[in-house]
Structure formats: C-alpha cells, structure tokens
Write a structure and sequence with these properties.
By secondary structure, the protein is α+β, with helices and mostly antiparallel strands. Helix content is about 15%, strand content about 35%. It has a 7-stranded antiparallel β-sheet, sandwiched between helices. The radius of gyration is 16 Å and the shape is globular. It starts with 8 loop residues before the first strand and ends in a 10-residue tail after the last strand.
Length: about 180
C-alpha cells in the first residue's frame, strides 16, 4: 500500500493543495455528508477489504498506538456513479471495545456517517500528502496515468479511543473523462 512512504505534513502547513480541493481537505466536518450534498445523494460505498492486519509504522505513530492488530477497512466512495475517494480506516484492536465494536459491522455503510453521529467524537490531527493517482488503478475500471491525488489522514477519538481515517481524493481525469 502506498501510504507507508508518504511525506505527510500538518494540514495547516500544506500550501500546495489545489484550490479546488482545499476547502474539502481542510473541512473538519463529515466528508460523507459533503459528498452526499455535492452528488444530490447519489452516493454509495464499495468495500474493497476489511481484515485484521498489522498497521504500518507510520500509522502506528500517527495513532499513538502499539497494537499489533487493527481492523483495516479500505473502501471506495462513489458520487454520481463515479469513484471519488479511496478511504483506508485503521481501527486498533484496543479501540474496538464496548460500543465501538459496531465499527466491525459497518458493511457498506459509510464510516463517517456513523462516527459523526456519535456524541463526544473528537477530531485530532489532520495531515496531508500528495501521491500518484495511478497507485489506485488496481481498484478502478478506468486508469490514471500522470494525475496527482491528494490525501488527508485524520485522527479521531471515538469514545476517547483513537482511530485513523485516510481519504484519498481521486482527481478528475486530465482527458476530461470520469474515472
């Protein structure tokens, strides 16, 4: 997975974020809600994988967690029938006790829709990075070539337990076609 070697930087220091994405990337609220509004509720989630894995060293450091196991969920978020965001959630085993166990049973429901409806949700650090959009071609019908994707990863505290959500904003294709 391409996230391990990324040059993450604090969101407030990221001057190079394209202006078309800046508001969305820096938004503190629910990306799910924003995408539903932007696509007139023509929105759905396709689960790519949801398995127990060991988070990479960068993810462990970001979450401030030494868990050897985490529930890692990778999905595509679709708007207007097109994939618009790739998301990777890292849910440390130690964060999945009590009411947080429901995160293991989301299926194709949006994680953001659930967590932003929970009282006491806190958002911590947001970091951003850019990367080659072609890293995600394996999940897509059409392929990126030279396009750049911007990613943000957010640290959330759900019932005071840390989880990480990384969202990669897939670019519009340079030839004008949708991915």
């Amino acid at each position: 997975m391409p996230f391990a070697d990324m040059n993450w930087q604090p969101a407030q220091n990221a001057k190079a974020i394209p202006s078309a994405l800046r508001d969305m990337i820096l938004d503190q609220h629910s990306l799910t809600r924003r995408l539903k509004q932007a696509h007139n509720n023509d929105f759905f989630v396709r689960v790519i994988s949801h398995d127990w894995q060991e988070p990479d060293a960068s993810e462990k450091a970001f979450i401030h967690c030494d868990d050897q196991r985490a529930s890692i969920r990778e999905v595509l978020l679709f708007g207007s029938g097109q994939p618009v965001v790739f998301a990777r959630s890292v849910l440390p085993e130690s964060s999945l006790s009590d009411e947080n166990k429901v995160l293991l049973e989301l299926g194709d429901r949006p994680l953001g829709e659930y967590i932003f409806s929970q009282p006491g949700l806190r958002r911590g650090t947001i970091e951003v990075a850019d990367m080659k959009a072609s890293e995600f071609n394996v999940y897509l019908d059409m392929k990126f070539t030279t396009e750049i994707a911007w990613a943000r990863r957010s640290l959330f505290y759900l019932r005071e337990k840390p989880i990480s959500v990384c969202e990669v904003f897939l670019p519009e294709r340079e030839d004008g076609g949708a991915v």
